[in-house]
Design a protein that fits this description.
Distance between the termini: 103 Å
CATH topology: Alpha-Beta Plaits
Order of helices and strands: HEHEHHEEHEEEHEEE
Number of domains: 1
CATH class: Alpha Beta
Strand content: 15-25%
Number of strands: 10
Radius of gyration: 24 Å
Helix content: 40-55%
Shape: globular
Structural class: alpha+beta
């Protein structure tokens, strides 16, 4: 084999090695993302939440950290009435509502089932109240599903994170969430789809006029 041919083989082997390494790195990155991401909602999962606090070394100065706990009200009847497909659509829609109303540096986790967690860093208690009102207001937006628009409400609890003890904060937020659930509002359908000649049309529920 000529010198030129040997050089060509060596160059090809080198690029092949680099390409194989890149494929391996991409595969590892994909596996890591899957391990820390909830498949249905594409939120972070509980494993991510746990390892985030276990591994971090820097703590914010002049900021207060909070964990918010969310639980959808009367989610089981939705599954029972419409099936798990609609239940999944509702969960994805709710997760999107959360993600749309927080900053990039905050993160949302799905803990399991219809329970979610939000980790935020705030400058004051006043910011916490503003965030609570914004989230509660966003939950009034109907979620589009294959059976129509569903108005979903969630019970919310929160606790301040101290000494990086996220499990204690989450437990306290969970307790407050269950207190809030005593005054819960239910998931309700605000309309339905009807097949017409023009295609799928959204129909609002009929309302009865009060007798005078």
């Amino acid at each position: 084999m000529s010198v030129a041919a040997l050089q060509h083989v060596n160059e090809k082997s080198k690029y092949s090695f680099v390409f194989d390494n890149m494929k391996e790195e991409n595969l590892i990155q994909e596996l890591v993302e899957r391990a820390y991401t909830d498949e249905l909602t594409q939120c972070n999962n509980r494993r991510y939440l746990s390892e985030y606090f276990q591994n971090r070394r820097k703590f914010p100065a002049g900021e207060e950290e909070f964990l918010f706990y969310f639980d959808l009200n009367d989610f089981k009847p939705v599954n029972d009435r419409y099936g798990h497909k609609v239940g999944d659509e509702l969960l994805k829609g709710f997760a999107n509502l959360l993600k749309e109303n927080v900053r990039q540096e905050d993160f949302v986790c799905r803990l399991g089932g219809d329970e979610f967690c939000l980790f935020v860093k705030l400058q004051s208690q006043d910011e916490k109240h503003v965030l609570m009102k914004r989230l509660q207001s966003s939950f009034r937006s109907p979620i589009d599903t294959s059976v129509g628009k569903l108005n979903v409400q969630a019970s919310i609890g929160y606790a301040q994170l101290r000494d990086n003890n996220w499990e204690e904060a989450l437990a306290k937020a969970d307790e407050k969430m269950y207190e809030a659930k005593k005054h819960k509002e239910k998931v309700k359908v605000t309309g339905h789809y009807r097949n017409t000649k023009k295609g799928k049309t959204w129909v609002k529920p009929h309302t009865r006029k009060k007798a005078i």
